[in-house]
Structures are given as structure tokens and as C-alpha cells.
Design brief:
Mean pLDDT: 75
Strand content: 5-15%
InterPro entries: CEP95
Number of helices: 4
Number of strands: 2
Protein name: Centrosomal protein
Structural class: alpha+beta
Strand order of the largest sheet: 1-2
Helix content: 55-70%
Low-confidence stretches: 98-108
Length: 108
């Protein structure tokens, strides 16, 4: 479990994200961050590019668009990790999924 201070930081991050869009949700504690928050952020950030209901209904173009977004995000994260490791960052265990352990490098 994280500290209350660490939790407060993430609540601030979430509220900052929410305030950037016309979303009438605000968090008081980290556990307030439920599916409604993620759905609202998803829909506002991605807009009409990948409507969630189209993915759920099996629309092939929407599915491939979402996969392309995730692929780009994963590539970005890998590049960031690689840059940090080359800059002498501190290595800590991290996993993109439970089957493939990776490492994240944090700057000192």
C-alpha cells in the first residue's frame, strides 16, 4: 500500500486530468477512481477516433485504431525506459503484464 501522501499525489493527477475536459467528476480519494472515471477520460481523450461502443460491438476499424494507439503507447514507454537506462537511472522491477517482467529505470 502507498502512503497517504503518495495517494494524494495520484488523486491530484487524476483531478488535473479530469479538469482538462468537460467532465463533472472529481476524486477525494484514490478509490474514487472507478470505471466511470476511466471511461470518461478515455472518451474525452480519444474523442470520436475510437468510440468504446464500436470496439465492444466488434467494429474492425475501431478495434484496429485502438490497437494502434496501444501499440504506439507501448513503443513510447519502451523508448522512455531505454533512455532512462542509458542515462544511468535506477533500475526497478516493472511489468507491462504479469507474464513479461520488464524493468523501469528511475533517475537519481
Amino acid at each position: 500500500m502507498g502512503t497517504q501522501e503518495g495517494e494524494r499525489d495520484w488523486v491530484d493527477v487524476a483531478n488535473d486530468l479530469l479538469s482538462k475536459y468537460p467532465i463533472k467528476l472529481r476524486l477525494r480519494k484514490l478509490t474514487d477512481c472507478d470505471a466511470n472515471v476511466f471511461t470518461a477520460l478515455y472518451e474525452n481523450i480519444l474523442g470520436e477516433k475510437v468510440p468504446g461502443e464500436n470496439v465492444v460491438s466488434g467494429d474492425k476499424e475501431s478495434i484496429t485504431n485502438l490497437l494502434e494507439i496501444f501499440d504506439g503507447l507501448l513503443e513510447y514507454l519502451k523508448e522512455e525506459i531505454s533512455e532512462e537506462s542509458q542515462n544511468g537511472g535506477k533500475q526497478i522491477p516493472f511489468s507491462f503484464n504479469s507474464l513479461t517482467p520488464k524493468y523501469v529505470f528511475l533517475s537519481n
